Amino acid sequence: MSELSHHHTDPTPRWCSCAVPDEDVSQTAPGVSRRNVLIGMSAAGALAAAGWPAAAVAADDKSVTITVMGTSDLHSNAVNWDYYTDAPFKDSAGNVVGLARVSSVVNQVRADRGRDRTLLFDAGDTIQGTPLGFYYASVDPVTESGAMHPIAAQMNAIGYDAVALGNHEFNYGLDFLANWISQMDADVLAANAVHAGTKVPAYLPYTIKTMKVKGRPPIRVGVLGLTNPGVVIWDKANVSGKIEVLDLIESAARWVPVIRNAGADVVIVSAHAGDSGLSSYGTDLPVENASALLAERVPGIDAILFGHAHRDVPQRFIVNSVSGEEVVLSEPKCWGQRLSVFDLTLAFERGAWKVTSKSAITVNTNTVVDDPALVALVKPQHDAVVAYVNQTVAISTEAMSAAEACWKDTAILDYVNAVQTATVADAVAGSAHAALPILSIAAPFNRAATFPAGAVTIKDVAGLYIYDNTLLASVLTGAQIKDYLEYSARYFQHVAPDAPVAPATWTNAHNLPDYNYDQFSGVTYDIDLSQPEGSRIVGLAYAGTPVAANQEFLVAVNNYRQSGGGGFPHIAAAPVVYNAQIAIREAIVSYASASGTIDSATFHVVNWRLVRGGVPVF
User: Fold this and answer.
1) Residues 325 and 240 occupy one common structural domain
2) Which of 140-154, 270-284, 522-536 is least confident?
3) DSSP states of 184-216 as a string?
4) Which residues form the 5'-Nucleotidase C-terminal domain (predicted)?
5) How far apart are CA 214 and CA 200, in angstroms?
6) 248 and 226 Cβ atoms separated by less than 8 Å
7) pLDDT band for position 237 (50/70/90)?
């Protein structure tokens, strides 16, 4: 949910300009000779503890079992570290994060299955998501320093065989993405990301990996990479006129036969798309979460590694409606918390390999400890980011928290709106739009965000504003703002006037995430939870006067929302009058540093509230 645009060098993209590769793009990832570190148990013991079965034994010499491992949504988690708390990652379930953990599990699977019987893929969203990713894209960009991207370095060391592009790979612009691809040893795939106005893939669509079998022909495993159609909304500024993203299902229907005709015995799809069949946007674009539909509608697929939804889906079977064959799907939980492991058994019959059985499971990476070689590989870069996020930017006169920001007007979220308003006001001063009232939109991204009383650091700001969004300003009318607020208010459940006050149970209606609950500053309004959706916004006013339907306002908004993310009405089509590609997080840091003090008395105005039957909840 972010984008940044920077001035970068212009590395030669490793793009595919041909419709169909002439030959296999096969490369054996280098062997990794490292000490595999487990917590007091053998490889088999650790994997058994994770619920992973022992290696399948072939029923006869005609059968071979191969193992395909997969990650997804790593989001620049290199080591088990939380940059927002400046401590090892911790959650109530005991999960851990990072590629260094993934590496230890991968090493154990390879030891158990045999290095020549395993492959390792990823389903996208690898380079954005933590301050580590942000730092090497914008603070000290690898495109300017020439340094190896830490995630590329780790994935190369682990020995990934193929990586699909996720939507967040486009956040930092096409030049940055091309540079990252050029650093990767693995094939980077996205068959449905095409040059604008064509059906020609802008990136490699697929690759085929070859596994030697003694006394038999080799087993050829094809992997097709598919990215998310939402890229053209979420990163419109980066891809418009350059990259289009075609329907996942139609693209797979085109490319799976090509892969089969190229000699693949097994076809795996690595798709950055959830399995719900739903979309967070309207119907103008192809389905966002199409993985299950893909399995059902496109014949010739054996297994699908999918991501995007950040869920843990160990194994799901779907019967293909055309072939009647079962397809096995698995999604590993995000940030390196799980590794999907597919086992595919093939029998050699009538001169050809045929998949006879398939299964999948996800292995919890908390069964191992960080691979020390992978930690050492990125330690200087990690340490630089830790030092960066611990820099003090200002002194806060009081502690502020976002814990109640989803149901109360809080000072800490008002600070985001104050920065956005001030930035836009400075930018439009002296222009034709300077006379328009300025409003600002912010959402509660992180309920755990806090500013302590005293020194506020970059990590505190990053914890409050966790996305790499940039700031824009658009013109909306009073009627459009009313529609926008009504749409946002769908986030709340319908609550009777006499129901017990339990606001934490009133949020996230329709499974809407917190980041899709937008709050306005600059106008006053009530949200009446006792009213039906579409009729909840009451008393919308500006400077004490009811907002007129045709009254114009300048609205500060992030690029994700302005591009159509979340499907909010009017904003994507509204005229844009400011877009300097300023990262909002960096604007907050700059604003706080310039003032030196964060004093809520100077910016916190309770301009909205929850009511029931006109009676304030709080």
Assistant:
1) yes
2) 270-284
3) -SSEEE-TTEEETTS--BSSB-EEEEEEEETTE
4) 401-571
5) 38
6) yes
7) confident
Question: Is the same domain home to 338 and 421?
Answer: no
The pair of structure tokens assigned to 497 is 């006037």
Q: 249 in a domain, yes or no?
A: yes
104 against 29, higher pLDDT: 104
Q: Do 215 and 91 fall into the same domain?
A: yes
* Listed residue (584, 552, 617, 565) closest to 415, CA to CA: 584
Helix pair angle (150-158, 99-113), 10° resolution: 10
Predicted confidence band at 22 (pLDDT cuts at 50, 70, 90)? very low
User: Is the per-residue pLDDT at 11 higher than 50?
Assistant: no
Q: What is the CATH number of the domain that holds 602?
A: 3.90.780.10
- Produce one character per residue of 325-355: b if its CB has 16 or more CB atoms within 10 Å, e if not: eebbbbbbbbbbbbbbbbbbbbbbeeeebeb
The single-letter code of the amino acid at 24 is D
Maximum Cα interatomic distance, the chain, rounded to a whole number of Å: 85
- Distance CA(285)–CA(234), nearest Å, equals 12
Cα(128)–Cα(148) distance, rounded to whole angstroms? 15
Distance from C-alpha of 292 to C-alpha of 162, rounded to nearest angstrom: 21
- Apex CA 396: angle with CA 448 and CA 426, to 5°? 95
CA distance linking residue 479 with residue 551, whole number of Å: 8
Contacts of 323 (CB under 8 A, 6+ apart): 299, 300
